[in-house]
Write a structure and sequence with these properties.
The protein is of the alpha+beta class. It contains six helices and seven strands. The protein has a five-stranded antiparallel beta sheet with strand order 1-7-2-4-3. Strands 5-6 form a two-stranded antiparallel sheet. The radius of gyration is 16 Å and the shape is globular.
């Protein structure tokens, strides 16, 4: 892993959705990294769908598994808290859609008036189960930034998070990402 990236990660801040207030997250653009709580594992209820390897980083003396990285062009608070960790947003959050698919949750049409448009979400009770799992098992590292898009590419290439499908050309975990794409459809 690139030492420059590791040094950059030291300047990120930690957010625990189970304990911290959404107001702790900035209402501006930036980068974020989704981590597994130590001792947690990806919810792979589908047999044979597991990543070969999950990159790890050390942050404040604790080692974490990195599963996803992303950007918010407008608001880390809105993107990370409201779209990822809360609500019925699998249709708007690739992270939620991937995790819910790994959990084996059933996708339903997102738009009742146009159910054939291909946009999906999970049933309300499944979305609640997914939110609870995420709050109990995930942490968020974040950093406000006006150059978030540039940094996202560097983070994906360096950290190779298994749930980042788009823009992740790393050969490691390719089979997992291909299977995840199929699950998400």
């Amino acid at each position: 892993m690139d030492d420059k990236v590791l040094k950059e990660i030291e300047s990120f801040k930690l957010f625990n959705p189970a304990k911290d207030s959404m107001r702790d997250l900035p209402d501006g653009p930036g980068n974020y990294i989704i981590l597994l709580v130590p001792g947690s594992i990806l919810p792979t209820k589908i047999q044979g769908v597991e990543p070969e390897n999950i990159s790890q980083i050390e942050y404040m003396g604790i080692t974490y598994d990195v599963i996803y990285t992303g950007i918010s062009s407008k608001s880390l608070r809105e993107r990370d808290y409201h779209q990822h960790f809360k609500g019925n947003n699998a249709g708007r959050s690739t992270l939620r859609k991937s995790l819910g698919s790994l959990m084996g949750l059933q996708k339903i049409p997102r738009d009742v008036n146009n159910p054939d448009n291909g946009k999906t979400k999970f049933r309300d009770d499944d979305e609640s189960e997914l939110s609870a799992w995420m709050c109990a098992n995930l942490l968020l590292l974040y950093k406000p930034s006006l150059k978030a898009a540039e940094k996202e590419k560097v983070l994906i290439n360096s950290l190779n998070p298994p749930l980042n499908i788009q823009g992740n050309n790393n050969l490691e975990n390719r089979k997992f990402r291909d299977m995840l794409k199929k699950l998400r459809k």
